[in-house]
Amino acid sequence: MKYLLLMLMVSTSLATAQDGKTAYTSNCASCHQATGKGIPSAFPPLAGHFTDILAADGRAYAINTVLYGMNGAIKVNGKSYSGVMPALGQLSDADIAAILNHVSTSWKNALPDTQKLFTADEVKAERAVKKTPEQVHELRPKGLK
Ligand code: HEC
Q1: Where are the domains of the chain?
Q2: Least enclosed by CB within 10 Å: which of 37, 43, 111, 113?
Q3: pLDDT digits 0-9 by tens, 85-141
Q4: 74 Cβ partners below 8 Å, 6+ apart?
Q5: 20 lines ligand 1 (CB under 6 A)
Q6: Whose CA is nearest to atom 8 of ligand 1?
């Protein structure tokens, strides 16, 4: 019985760490929507846009938006956003990696050839350097439209 419980616990935590879609639905979809399309002028889209962030070398920036939040005016596809993205650093490194991989490969988003999937170690390395939401804004690639 004890072992069964242990196995159940282990398999549950593996499932949480790996299921980026579920974790996205619980932690991101209220703002960025299940479709990833966001809400114009309130919550920026990730569908059709996250790949641009990656291609512009915004990998560390993306990890940090989730870990430490983001505050500062941005433009996405010509629309302005000046809300605040809350810090979601209470999520585990593995969950954050799984969510970002879900976002990178959903809604016709695709990882650019030059990029590999996000890993928990990568998230851990960014977590080690604390930032304010304003400092995260400064990490945003300048070329993004
Ligand atoms: C409470 C609403 C809210 C939640 C929940 C939320 N976000 Fe955000 N997100 C925002 C807002 C608002 C912005 C834009 C902030 C600004 O303009 O400073 C943003 C910005 C971003 C950006 C940067 C987009 C860009 O073009 O620079 C990324 C990436 C992102 N969010 C991903 C996520 C992920 C992944 C999750 C879930 C782990 C998440 N967000 C959860 C509201 C939210």
Answers
A1: 2-138
A2: 113
A3: 999 999 999 999 999 999 999 999 999 888 999 999 999 999 999 999 999 999 999
A4: 44, 80, 81, 82, 137, 140, 144
A5: no
A6: 85
The backbone region for 89, taken as left when phi is positive above 0, alpha when psi lies in -120 to 50, beta otherwise, is alpha
Closest-CA residue to 141 (of 55, 19, 37): 55
Q: Which amino acid is at 8?
A: L
What CATH number does the domain located at 2-138 have? 1.10.760.10
Q: How far apart (Å, rounded) are the C-alpha atoms in residues 110 and 117?
A: 11
Dump pLDDT digits (tens) for 29-85: 999 999 999 999 999 999 999 999 999 999 999 999 999 999 999 999 999 999 999
Q: Residue 85, SS3? A: strand
Q: Which atom of ligand 1 is nearest to the CA of 82?
A: 17
Structure tokens at 36: 């990833």
How far is Cα 10 from Cα 2, in angstroms, rounded to an integer?
A: 12
